[in-house]
Design the sequence.
């Protein structure tokens, strides 16, 4: 491509990073939020906040399921956790799914406002709400991210020197470059790990060579062979279901201290009923669920399934590192901060591209292209936090009984983002557009705890004294985000214009 | 953008910079390499993954998962090659020849595997 290998890699880093940077910022930003998806869901359902993190009464839950989903062919019970202290029940009749949230102890249904909660950011993160197309777009972006990381390493042979260099005052371009390098180098192992493990999750979809050759492209058969579940069709003779409470306790005997995540019943009330009890993965790296399967009519143990195959376990650890379902709050915060660092690295990379080129003059076509990049940077980097804040605000402000409420929260997110895009493109002064959007996002996030105070009984004056840290954490993080965006708004004007073209030599000590 | 001049050296020390000599990159050159990286790279990755899946002396699932985890390493290297090669022609050759070699190994194996 260029005269030297390093220059070729530099070119690839610059252009690959720019063209996929906007998508990557969206993916990393929403992924960072997804680290706390369950906590966000909990925060967005204030009706649950009075529930104690109490033990579960499986029998009470089963009675509720018999009443609601009496003659269905499938039941699921999702057990409560420390992160989300509510029980979810699902049942399926033909192809009709029903779902309710119920109190873990009494088995009574809880009425909660309709919201997608943290699930919204989760789906946004891995498929941009575009289903399979989105999965491919995210995959292509992740691959470019991997290439950008490797090329970034190649062009940084002075990696340690760069790491200890921070020159906020020397020139605008150097300051941006130093932040970009600092967030890149400091968190480099995480960037590599999270990008690679993210690709592996959908590896069979992206590169289905093995599935095509050994299974004739039959993805379902691959999953069936991996999971080795017992299948039984209904006998259509009635037989009472064995107590699920007993079966759940018996399943736990196989797991040396592990707890239950799911109870699944196939053909409840049938002579051929099956009960599958699935182990929670909150105490292990490998994202693989051990299972015990019982005969639902006799209570006989039919299968004790544990993952033993080395490659399968390795794969489970690799994707487990991405999902972090191992429930350690310290690690969760570290992931959040490192995800934030990755988002900052991508954002500064995007800004750097414009700062370095702003002082130069080109023909009209190039100027139009530079303006487009500048405006897109504002719309994505400053606009996405505003849209996120709007999503939280609408959760508290929309009427609780509004039809299609969850959809309206999503619409508010995308409508707000649309306004940010318009504002970024229509505002004459680019630096004013930056400032206004960063201040706007900052104000929305900083005031979110106040809005919480005005609309719920689970605001910081209550949650902090009562040590309800999972709720208080969201308000405090929101406050910190507001301050960070405000700080960005204050400084963005000063660092906007490059006082010197990038190609001029910069005063710094020469390496020998 | 069509007449974009790109100065080399985003982050290289000044001694390595060549401020007076900027290189022009032709659109045809860039397009050929992007296509090589995306499609040539995909072909090579698919063929190499297929080859590895069939050669590994493991059970079906184990072989699929092992090869699949390595596939993204192949793809990354293929993309780097597409832009590091001195000419677009060499970029394509460097991807197609190994892909063909992998396919030559994989096709007979796939027949015996009954795929």
Sequence:
């Amino acid at each position: 491509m260029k005269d030297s290998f390093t220059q070729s890699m530099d070119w690839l880093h610059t252009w690959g990073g720019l063209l996929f940077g906007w998508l990557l910022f969206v993916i990393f930003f929403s992924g960072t939020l997804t680290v706390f998806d369950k906590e966000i869901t909990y925060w967005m359902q204030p009706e649950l906040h009075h529930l104690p993190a109490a033990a579960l009464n499986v029998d009470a839950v089963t009675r509720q399921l018999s009443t609601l989903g009496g003659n269905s062919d499938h039941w699921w019970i999702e057990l409560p956790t420390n992160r989300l202290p509510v029980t979810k029940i699902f049942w399926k009749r033909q192809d009709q799914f029903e779902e309710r949230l119920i109190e873990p102890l009494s088995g009574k249904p809880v009425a909660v406002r309709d919201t997608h909660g943290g699930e919204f950011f989760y789906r946004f993160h891995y498929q941009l709400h575009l289903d399979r197309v989105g999965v491919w777009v995210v995959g292509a972006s992740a691959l470019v991210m991997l290439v950008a990381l490797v090329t970034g390493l190649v062009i940084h042979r002075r990696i340690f020197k760069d790491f200890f260099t921070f020159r906020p005052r020397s020139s605008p371009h150097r300051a941006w470059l130093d932040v970009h390098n600092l967030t890149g180098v400091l968190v480099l192992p995480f960037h590599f790990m999270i990008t690679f493990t993210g690709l592996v999750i959908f590896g069979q979809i992206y590169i289905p060579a093995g599935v095509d050759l050994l299974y004739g492209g039959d993805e379902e058969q691959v999953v069936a062979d991996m999971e080795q579940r017992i299948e039984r069709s209904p006998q259509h003779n009635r037989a009472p279901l064995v107590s699920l409470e007993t079966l759940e306790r018996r399943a736990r005997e196989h797991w040396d201290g592990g707890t239950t995540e799911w109870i699944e019943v196939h053909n409840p009330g049938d002579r051929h009923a099956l009960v599958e009890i699935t182990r929670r993965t909150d105490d292990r790296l490998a994202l693989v669920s051990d299972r015990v399967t019982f005969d639902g009519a006799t209570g006989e143990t039919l299968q004790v399934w544990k993952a033993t195959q080395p490659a399968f376990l390795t794969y489970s650890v690799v994707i487990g590192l991405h999902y972090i379902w191992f429930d350690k709050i310290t690690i969760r915060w570290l992931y959040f901060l490192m995800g934030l660092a990755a988002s900052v690295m991508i954002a500064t990379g995007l800004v750097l591209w414009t700062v370095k080129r702003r002082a130069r003059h080109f023909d009209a076509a190039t100027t139009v292209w530079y303006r487009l990049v500048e405006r897109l940077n504002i719309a994505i980097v400053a606009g996405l936090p505003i849209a996120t804040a709007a999503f939280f605000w609408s959760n508290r402000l929309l009427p609780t009984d509004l039809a299609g409420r969850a959809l309206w929260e999503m619409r508010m997110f995308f409508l707000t983002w649309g306004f940010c895009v318009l504002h970024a493109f229509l505002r004459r002064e680019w630096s004013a557009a930056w400032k206004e959007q960063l201040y706007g996002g900052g104000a929305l996030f900083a005031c979110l705890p106040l809005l919480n105070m005005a609309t719920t009984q689970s605001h910081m004056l209550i949650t902090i004294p009562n040590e309800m840290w999972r709720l208080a954490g969201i308000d405090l993080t929101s406050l910190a985000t507001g301050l960070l965006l405000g700080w960005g708004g204050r400084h963005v004007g000063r660092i906007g214009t490059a006082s010197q073209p990038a190609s001029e030599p910069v005063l710094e000590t020469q390496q020998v | 953008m069509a007449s974009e001049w790109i100065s080399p050296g985003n982050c290289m020390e000044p001694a390595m910079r060549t401020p007076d000599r900027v290189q022009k990159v032709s659109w045809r050159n860039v397009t050929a390499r992007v296509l090589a990286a995306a499609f040539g790279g995909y072909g090579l990755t698919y063929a190499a993954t297929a080859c590895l899946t069939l050669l590994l002396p493991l059970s079906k699932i184990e072989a699929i998962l092992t090869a699949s985890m390595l596939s993204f390493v192949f793809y990354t290297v293929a993309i780097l090659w597409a832009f590091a090669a001195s000419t677009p022609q060499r970029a394509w050759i460097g991807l197609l020849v190994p892909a063909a070699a992998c396919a030559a190994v994989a096709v007979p194996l796939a027949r015996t595997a009954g795929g």
Notes: Strands of chain B lie at 5-6, 23-24. Residues 1-21 of chain B have pLDDT under 50 and may be disordered. Chain B has three helices and two strands. Chain B touches chain A through 54 residues (CB under 8 Å).
